[in-house]
Amino acid sequence: MFDSGLGGLSIWQAVTRALPDWPVTYLADQAYCPYGPRSQVEIAARTLAICRYLADQGASLIVIACNTATSAGVDHVRAALSIPVVGVEPAIKPAAAASRSGRISVLATEAMLKSRRFESLVRRHAGDVDVLPRPGVGWVEKVEAGDLTSPDTRRLISEVVTPLLSENVDHIVLGCTHYPFLAPLIREMAGDGIVLDDPAEAIARRVVTLINGKTPSATAGAPYRFLTTSGDPHPMAAVLPALIGHRYAVESRPLP
């Protein structure tokens, strides 16, 4: 499993709850984080390189736990690798289907909102529902730092969420895997009348389906490995307790 950084841990939590006996390796591409401002070509190349690395490490299934990386690179990865590859996409389809007001918002990175895949999702699944795309500028960096509740984080979220309250939006799609870690603040500002759509549980169900009938490795206890492409693993190790509630050792794996 990999993400541009630590956001994919929201997917990691759902997958490890669904498959407690399976060992999972999580790679955070913190040397290149955030992906949002980067070009689609660069993100696609990086996604393929990381997935090749994980396959070479013995992965039997890869989860691209990043909406931006999925939009840019999942097709290239699936064409290059023979193992199952699960991507993550904004939950536009269920949000649009459940919307009563006919207006939903998608919060995501700039790269995701500018991608052809996002345009395709809206065209195929939104129907007559109005979709209001909004970039969460600076949000990824706040999650990477484990800064989930500070006044500055609150300000960044309020700048995006508060204006939506006058737009008759009844669903907010969390279109970046970092954003569920900011959901408590988003919920506080949005109120109970707006549904937050997070695809993590759906991704976990998909993973379970793909490995149905297979057995985990003989190693007991479902060992979890955490890797970062940053040269210094200590910042990631320091933030893990704030995001997933546990301390784990982190290994540095700089990739070309």
TrEMBL record:
Transmembrane intervals: none
Top-level taxon of origin: Bacteria
Annotated substrate binding sites: D3, S4, Y35, G36, N67, T68, T177, H178
GO MF term set: glutamate racemase activity
Catalytic reactions on record: L-glutamate = D-glutamate
Functional pathway: Cell wall biogenesis; peptidoglycan biosynthesis
Keywords on record: Cell shape, Cell wall biogenesis/degradation, Isomerase, Peptidoglycan synthesis
GO BP: cell wall organization; peptidoglycan biosynthetic process; regulation of cell shape
Catalytic residues, chain numbering: C66, C176
EC number assigned by the record: 5.1.1.3
Family (UniProt): Belongs to the aspartate/glutamate racemases family.
Task of the protein: Provides the (R)-glutamate required for cell wall biosynthesis.
PANTHER family reported in the protein's UniProt record: GLUTAMATE RACEMASE (PTHR21198)
Listed name of the protein: Glutamate racemase
Organism field: Paludibacterium paludis
